[in-house]
Amino acid sequence: MFTALTERLSAVLQRLVGRGVLSEQDVAEALREIRRYLLEADVSLDVARDFVERVRERAVGAIQLKTVSPGQQVVKLVHDEITGLLGGTRRQLEFASVGPTVLLLVGLQGSGKTTTAAKLARRLKLEQKAPCLVAADLQRPAAVEQLQQLGSQVGVPVFSGSGDVTGVVRGALREAEKARCRSVIVDTAGRLQIDAALMDELAALKRAVQPREVLLVADAMTGQDAVRSARGFHDGVGLTGVILTKLDGDARGGAALSIHAVTGVPIVYVGTGEGPDALEPLDPARMAGRILGQGDVVALVEKAASTIDRAAAERLEKKARSKQGMDLQDFLVALKQMQQMGPMKQLLGLLPGVSAKALKGLPADDKRLRHVEAIILSMTPAERSDPKILSGSRRLRIAKGSGRPVQEVNRLLEQFQQMRKFLKRM
Fold first, then answer.
1. 301-425 has which fold?
2. Between the chain's N and C termini, which has fewer beta carbons within 10 Å?
3. What is the spatial distance between Cα 270 and Cα 281, in angstroms, rounded to a whole number?
């Protein structure tokens, strides 16, 4: 997420922090670089220009302060301005106090509306909002079947019908009330580009069902095209929020940093992967920290809280504190818990001080973790419980069973022993 932009901005700001005294020329040169990097990240020209001017105006006073590092002050100013570009404060969905809340998802074809609808339903289900899904995309072949499959995966009911879109959604709302759904997510049809027919259909649907939220699902990888589509949908239908998808891909960040500034519409959620759990609420201040390479420990804690089995974690902690210590079976449980939190690269990116450059050098996937899992699963329960019995012939058998070289098996066992000693010392 924002890898290239993070790497470049971090390098520029690090140079400023490393200097004891800053002149206006130092700041001006740094801001010129920042402006160039923002434009290369596909941020709107007007947005990049206004951003740099605001930072420059505030930085003139900041560099005169003697009590605080001027470099740190400039970093804070840049952080605050990026937070402002992203909306300033976190925007939460509004829900009706009586009756079901209708959430209308709109967007162009291929932006990921149907998948996002299921992700949003899963999140609302965890928040006790009793969601259901409505298949209102009657244009794309198999769109209804796709939503039904996704709804089944996340355990949320899906209502559908035939005829005109407005009639289908009205009928689905009646069914939702009978099923006592508190939130109704409507997956609408898209087009390859904005046209009058699409806007008329969505405007008529909005008048008919009076949604509490109209959320645009936009593809972050399309850059300024996403910003233009946001402006078009906002003018035609009136948006209340945006969900940016595919931020885990090669998105340069321009759409995320431009949409709110151009349209005034806040980004509510961001899609960070393909899994049903890969939808995160956007907190502007925390996202600004990620962009500047400052990490996001709160997001890391939230991931851990939502995915880690507390009972299993307590058992592992008790075992680690015991005289016997953890064995390889416990290590395998811990490994699986960690894998549930998401890709290792993504998790490391949430830690403060882990640079974008360091993350860039990591493997693109978590093959190493899967290799470790394969090695441990190739052992017998007795071998996992007592690694001391692993003779040379046993290690050779494990290597063949896991498809990994013997050297890798030996390295894993050495690292495991070191970890056990470290935990005992703690």
1. 434 Repressor (Amino-terminal Domain) (1.10.260)
2. C
3. 6
Task: DSSP letter for 344, please.
Answer: H
Could you tell me which residues are beta bridge partners of residue 183? 101, 131
DSSP state of 384: H
**Residue 163 and residue 174: Cα distance in Å, rounded?**
16
- Would you say the pTM of this structure is higher than 0.85? no
Q: What are phi and psi of 169, to 5 degrees?
A: -70, -40
pLDDT digits (tens, 9 = 90+) for 8-27: 888 888 887 777 677 788 88
CATH topology of domain 101-292: Rossmann fold (3.40.50)
What value does the mean pLDDT of the chain take?
Answer: 81
Q: Which residue has the tokens 């291929």?
A: 110
DSSP state of 224: H
Q: Mind listing the pLDDT tens digit for each residue in 197-244?
A: 888 888 999 999 899 999 999 888 877 888 888 888 898 889 999 998
In sequence order, what E strands does 241-293 have? Answer: 241-245, 267-271, 279-281
Instruction: Please count the other Cβ atoms lying within 10 Å of the Cβ belonging to residue 57.
Output: 10
How is residue 247 annotated by DSSP? T
Extended strands (E) in 124-182: 131-136, 158-159
The Cα–Cα gap between 254 and 259 comes to: 8
Q: What's the rounded Cα separation, in Å, for the pair 214 and 300?
A: 29
CA distance 296 to 316: 26
Instruction: Pick the more confident residue, 62 or 382.
Output: 382
Which CATH number fits the domain 3-85, given the four candidates 1.20.120.140, 1.10.10.10, 3.40.50.2300, 3.20.20.190?
Answer: 1.20.120.140
